[in-house]
Amino acid sequence: MRIPDLKLTQFHSHTLINQVYFNTFSDHVVLNHKLINTPHTHDFFLCVLFTSGEGTHEIDFGTYAIRPGAVFFLRPGQSHFWKFKSQPEGFIFFHSRSFYELNFSGHALSSFPFYSSLQNPPLLHVHGISLKKLKALFKESLSEYQGSEPYREMKIANFINAIYIELARSYSSNIDMHQLVSYKYAALLEQLQGLINIHFYLEKFPKFYANQLNITPKHLNRIVRDTINKTTQQLISERVILEAQRLIVHTADPLSQIAYTLGFSDYAYFSKLFKLKTGMSPMEFRNQYTGAIS
Fold it and tell me: How many C-beta atoms lie closer than 10 Å to residue 248's C-beta?
C-alpha cells in the first residue's frame, strides 16, 4: 500500500475548470478535508500563499514553518502534510503541466527556479510591497476563476504566469542563486529526475538513465555533479530512500514487504543501505517518526 496520489479531478471547488483549480485556503480545507487530512502526493503543480495562521508543512520529510507571507511550491509526486496551530488563511491554486505549457509553449515550468529541481527550496517568504502585490494577484485570479467571462481560461493562465514571475523575482533575490540548479542543465536534470521517478523501483544504476537520455554515463554524471554537486548514483539512491521513508512512515506494510516493493530481494541489504543513508534502521526510523507525531 502506498500513500494516496491525488488527482486534480478529485478536488471539489465552487467552480470547475479543466486542469486548473483556485480557492481561498480556508474554503479549500473545508471542501476537501477528507482528501487532505493525511499525508499524500499529487499529480499536479501546487502553489499556496499564507496570509495568516501558523503551523508546519512537512514536504518529503523536511519540516517548514507556516506563517504569514509563506509561499510553498510543490511538484508532482512530492509527499506533504499540513499541521496548523491557528486558523490558516490565504490562497491556493494548482494546475497540470499541460495547462501551463500549452498556454506558454515557449516557456517551460522548469525555467522557474522553484520548479527547476527538487534540490531547490520549496519555500519562499515574501513581505512588504511584494506580499501586497501577490495578494492582489491571487485575489484577481480567484475572482476570474469564479466568474464566467469570455476567454476566462486564457486570462487565468496569464494570472498564473504573472504570479510565477513575481515569485521568481522574489525567489531569485531572497535565495542564494549560487546554490540553485543552473538553468543551463535544468531541463536535462528535470528529465533525469522524471525518469528516476518512473523507473527507480527496477532500475538503480546510472547506465540505464544515460541510455534513456542518449548520453554516456560519464557525461551524465559530469552534468549532475556540475549542477548540484552530486553523482547520478546519489540521485537514484536518494529517490529510493525517500520512497522507503514514505512507505515506512505512511503505511503499515511490513518492512520486508517494503524492501520487496522497492526491488530488494534481500531485506538485510536493504536495511543496511537504509541505515547508511539515514543513520537509522528501518524499524528505528518508523518508531522515531511515528512516536514524534503521535
Answer: 21
- β-strand pairing of 41-42 with 5-6: parallel
| Cα distance between residue 163 and residue 171, in whole Å | 12
Residue 222 has pLDDT above 80, yes or no: yes
- Are 82 and 223 in a shared domain? no
**Is pLDDT at 293 greater than 50 in this prediction?**
no
Rounded-to-integer distance, Cα 56 and Cα 65, Å: 5
Grid coordinates standing for 146? Answer: 469564479
User: What is the domain-level CATH number for residue 219?
Assistant: 1.10.10.60
Domain boundary among the residues 127, 149, 178 is at 178
Domain that holds residue 18: 5-178
Answer yes or no: do 193 and 73 share one domain.
no
Give 197's contacts (C-beta < 8 A, 6+ positions apart).
77, 239
Compute φ and ψ for 108, nearest 5 degrees.
-80, 150
Closest CA to 183 of 233, 120, 261: 120
pTM value is: 0.78
Closest C-alpha among 207, 220, 282, 225 to residue 249:
282
Judge if 137 and 199 occupy the same domain.
Answer: no
**Same domain assignment for residues 116 and 244:** no
**Terminal-residue alpha carbon distance, the chain:** 21
Helix (H, G, I), strand (E, B) or coil at 109: helix
- Cβ atoms of 263 and 237 within 8 Å: the answer is no
Instruction: Give the position of cell 504569514.
Output: 68
